[in-house]
Design brief:
Helix 9 packs across helix 11 and helix 9 packs across helix 12. The chain is about 45% helix and about 15% strand. The chain has 3 domains: about 200 residues, Rossmann fold (3-Layer(aba) Sandwich), CATH 3.40.50; about 90 residues, NAD(P)-binding Rossmann-like Domain (Rossmann fold, 3-Layer(aba) Sandwich); about 140 residues, 3-Layer(aba) Sandwich (Rossmann fold). With about 450 residues, the chain is an alpha/beta fold.
Amino acid sequence: MKITIVGTGYVGLVTGTCFAEVGIDVTCVDIDKKKIENLNKGIIPIYEPGLEDMVERNVQKGRLHFSTKLSESLDGVNVVFGAVGTPPDEDGSADLKYVLQVAKEVAENMSDYVLMVTKSTVPVGTAEKVRKAMKDALDERGADIEFDVASNPEFLKEGAAVDDFLKPDRIVVGIDSDKAKHVMEKLYKPFTMNGHPVIFMDITSAEMTKYTANSMLATKISFMNDIANMCEIVGADVNMVRKGIGSDRRIGRYFIYPGTGYGGSCFPKDVKALIKTSDDFGYSLEVLKAVERVNERQKFVLFSKAMKYFDEDLNGKTFAMWGLSFKPQTDDMREAPSVVIINKLLAQGAKVKAYDPVSMEEAKRILGDKIEYCKDQYEAIIDADALFLVTEWPEFKFPNFNVMSKLLTNKVIFDGRNVYDVDEVRAEGFTYFGIGTK
């Protein structure tokens, strides 16, 4: 079986590589020539555990190919996945121009039946726009070629995407024809043989499922952050509260860890897009609007704690920052709380020294020379007035507090992920501020 994936970003590259891993012949297409040149050399554009080795292995076995020309990547292909970006417009809606351009180009070059599968996260109604774009292009050619459209949203967690794809909780597929269902059943057979379920539904429901899933997870995060802030006010410990509610199977232990707000490529964009879609249909999603407000406020929590501790004067002070990516096991800094905190500190005349195990190059691209980049976590805290822990990378969880005592000018820690035990850190002589702790 041969398939084509359009877009070699996070979703497209993981999808294509994992399909190749189970024996499918895959061509990944991207208009970025430099990216394709690098991929052909084994240089991948993102950090994702296990992905680089898998790309190299499948390229060597001749199952994974990279190209800049979609028109030359459709021969013998009956399934095309669109995995291009859907960046948010100023009003929060998803920009579908790349999705529709792919559909149009496929229709302009196809010579046999194609199932056009949308893998990108798109709002309700996108499939019909894709169908129209393809039909219009075929009509312009005067070609009567059968095609179907489908929605196959991704549920990949950055940092665990390879495992998520190969061992999925569920595979959601929106279709509206028996032929499309048969094609997708065949495509996903290597996964269903291991018991991973494919949930077939109508296309509109599939489109809605992706946004609902991410919005539900974002809601849990914002709710817990709101509760954490309340815990500080009343003198409760959110870590105890979290354990108390997490043991309830109706709530569960996942996504109830307080912090500095969610970031990344999915939650912020998808929450905004679902709110905008709902508004367009004349219905206001009040809970999600509150989720977004709480999240934006939460990104300022550590900065506010620092302002209060230093009597509203950060001018001339130096702050160390451990972690820049929006979460561990990725170099993704899109909507990362670290960027918000850094910009607020700099605006107050402070200096920032930072270290992240993976995202230093990405940070340089985003922040330029506005901050100092350090070779390790301990270099970052030399002569710093306080430490901000923003991303809970494993190597930050058990630091040498004796070394830290000697290097920090002031033994102050602002822990944005509640990584450290409050009593232990304070016993070491540090002033400690967590999220929702006493």
